[in-house]
Amino acid sequence: MGEDEQVNVAPQMELLTSGAESVYSPQELHQRLIDSAGSGTPLRVKFGMDPTAPDIHLGHTVQLRKLRQFQDLGHKAVLIIGDYTARIGDPSGQDATRPVLSVEEIQSNAGTYFQQAGKILDTTAARLEVRHNGEWLDKLRFADVLRLAGQMTVARMMERDTFALRLQKEIPIGLHEFLYPLMQAYDSVRIRADVELGGSDQTFNNLCGRDIQR
C-alpha cells in the first residue's frame, strides 16, 4: 500500500491500542488496518460473551467500549453470544469446574446480555452483527469435534496457567474443559474474525482462535 494509506491508519492504531494491556501483534493489526483502508472493506471485530450470569460485568463493558471504538472508525462488530459454550463454562481463571447451567437459564441471561450490550454498541445493521454460537456448534458431528481436537495438543493446552495450576494442586480437570478453547476458536473461523477482543484471561483462548484460523 502507499505511504499515504499507512499514515492514515496511524490515528486508528493510536486509538485502538490505547488502554490495551497487550496486542497480538501490533504489526499485524497495523497491516490489517492498512488493508482495510485500501480495499474499503471494514474489519470484522469479534467479541464473545457467555451468558453465565443475569447481567454483564465490568470487564464486559470495557471490551464493549473498545468494540464501539472500532465501530466508530467504520469497522463491523461481531458480537458472539455464547449460548452453547455457556453449557461448558469457560475454565479461564477457575480453580474448579464451573457448575452446569440449564438451557432456560442460559436463554434468559442471553436476552439480558444483548439488551445491555446494545446500550454501548452501535446497533445498526451496518455496524453490528449478533450471532449465537449454538447456530454452528449445535450442528457439529463427533467426527467434526475430533478433527477440531486434532489441531491442538495436550502439551499446548497445559501451557494455560489455569490448567497447569489445577494439575499442580491435583484439582480435577474435565475433558470438556479442554474443548472450550477449541469451541471458542471455531467461533472465530465461522464468523471470519479479523480482530478479536478479550480480557487478559482470554489470551489463551483468543490465540487458539488465531491458530485454528490459519
UniProtKB/TrEMBL annotation:
GO terms for molecular function: ATP binding; tyrosine-tRNA ligase activity. One of its GO terms (biological process) is tyrosyl-tRNA aminoacylation. Its EC number is 6.1.1.1. It catalyses: tRNA(Tyr) + L-tyrosine + ATP = L-tyrosyl-tRNA(Tyr) + AMP + diphosphate + H(+). Transmembrane segments: none annotated. One of its GO terms (cellular component) is cytosol. Keywords: Aminoacyl-tRNA synthetase, ATP-binding, Ligase, Nucleotide-binding, Protein biosynthesis. This is tyrosine--tRNA ligase. The lineage of its organism: unclassified sequences, metagenomes, ecological metagenomes.
